[in-house]
Write a structure and sequence with these properties.
alpha/beta; globular; 231 residues; 9 helices
Length: 231
């Protein structure tokens, strides 16, 4: 699937949502979308509110394709050094999947490299506006993708209605065996997680319990790195 096809898929989705919202109340739609879009400018400086109405649509339009490219680049880089998803039926956990960009990128990379026979992706995102976009966009993407590939990519949406890291970590602590071949941290570690570094590190380690011995976990970070502290 070409990048221009993915871009068109995203544009078509956002256009449809805009038309639906505009038909209900143009003034409210314009105000809410503008507010959500402006909120995304905060990602370089402070924590944005992904629970705002239409935050998913705004993020989809502004960052979704860029995020997919980031993940695809990371997968290619890692795979050159350490082959990824070599199991017959590999499993992936997407932590903080947002509008589904990482899930889509992993799916596209997997089918493009003809790895294995099927891929299972567990997507976790607590923010409803982001989650609702992924539930529509990802299946549409997979339907188009699988029409051009023999590889199967089932999409498992995992709604965690509590703090995301805590929920995934609890699953890791309770797991009887490791189940994932790849964990993608789409989740961004904002100020609260940085202030409580010891707790955050432990939660990440607990999530790591879900990784098989030959598995890989990698992190996507905002393009403005966190400043180091001596405290």
């Amino acid at each position: 699937m070409q990048w221009n096809e993915i871009e068109q898929l995203i544009v078509d989705f956002v256009n449809l949502r805009c038309e639906e919202e505009w038909a209900i109340n143009p003034r409210v739609f314009a105000a809410d979308f503008a507010k959500a879009y402006r909120q995304l400018q905060r990602t370089h400086f402070e924590d944005p509110d992904y629970n705002l109405r239409l935050a998913g649509e705004a993020y989809c339009l502004k960052y979704h394709l860029q995020r997919m490219d980031n993940v695809n680049t990371a997968l290619n880089f890692i795979h050159d050094v350490y082959p990824l998803l070599q199991e017959a039926q590999p499993s992936v956990l997407d932590v903080g999947g947002g509008t589904g960009s990482s899930t889509m990128a992993v799916s596209g990379w997997f089918t493009g490299n003809n790895v294995g026979n099927s891929l299972n992706i567990q997507y976790c995102e607590p923010a409803l506006p982001m989650n609702s976009v992924a539930k529509v966009l990802v299946p549409r993407f997979l339907q188009t993708l699988q029409g051009n590939s023999s590889a199967a990519v089932p999409f498992v949406s995992c709604d965690i209605n509590q703090e995301l890291l805590f929920g995934c970590a609890a699953t890791g602590r309770q797991a009887e065996k490791a189940i994932h071949d790849l964990v993608v941290f789409s989740f961004t570690f904002w100020k609260q997680e940085q202030r409580e570094f010891a707790r955050t590190a432990q939660l990440v380690l607990d999530i790591g319990r879900l990784l098989k011995s030959s598995a890989v976990m990698f992190f996507l970070t905002p393009d403005k790195p966190v400043e180091k502290s001596n405290s």
